[in-house]
Amino acid sequence: MIFNKDTAEKTAELLLQINAIKLNPRNPFTWASGWQSPIYCDNRLILSFPLIRNYVRDEFSKHIEKQFGKPDVIAGVATGAIGIGILVAESMGLPFVYVRPEPKKHGRQNQVEGFLQKGQNVVIVEDLISTGNSSLLAVEALRTAGANVKGMAAIFTYGFDVAKENFKNANVDLLTLSNYQNLLDLAVAKRYITEDEEATLREWNLSPSTWIVKV
Q: Is residue 63 annotated as involved in ligand binding?
């Protein structure tokens, strides 16, 4: 679910402008999972563009407080959301922690890094949602540490059905600045892609694990 339509369209346009999102239906990318994909999203690029990172920071700060109430702590998911999560926490005047994919193998063996007290309300900041599996590991780690997870706010989601089901099963509210539907609508309107390419991108989104490019 997006925070609102205007934010979704503006965020999609900014991500396309800086090539944080690349669309290439004819020459697809290969994800780490092995999936073939006509889209690649690297939201880390946002941090290199001050005006855009400030926009993302401000939209997150405004919508997080409106939708979830002001939490006690902002948590970022390592590594992609650490940078933007810190910016959001600073803007909201809140403490920040980040969550590793798994506990450290040495030292204190922390998975949640930073000062977190049991019972504190936490909103998680994430950069990208695909299946949701890695993001929900962060939710589990924070809950294990005693946090009350109010929800998750992400920059972008592919909108896969499996992700929606995973978040529903985990009882986690997910809200995003933009999503796949708004991205494609804008990409066609601004002529980043043709209508034929849009059809390919929509076909991929229905079954990304089995999709192959048609030659």
A: no
Q: Any binding-site annotation on 190?
A: no
Query: What is the residue-wise DSSP string for 194-215?
Result: -HHHHHHHHHHHHSTTT-----
pLDDT along the chain (215 residues), means of 10: 95 97 92 91 97 98 97 97 98 98 77 97 97 96 97 97 96 98 95 93 94 79
126 neighbors 81 (Cβ within 8 angstroms): yes
Q: Binding site annotation covers 93?
A: no
d(CA 160, CA 131): 7
The separation between CA 56 and the C-alpha centre of its own chain, rounded to angstroms, equals 12
Kindly state the greatest CA–CA separation across the chain: 55
15 is in an annotated binding site: no
80 is in an annotated binding site: no
**Residue closest to 157 by CA, chosen among 130, 137, 135:** 130
Whole-model pTM: value is: 0.95
The set of residues, in sequence order, having a beta carbon less than 8 Å from that of 196 and lying 6+ positions away, is none
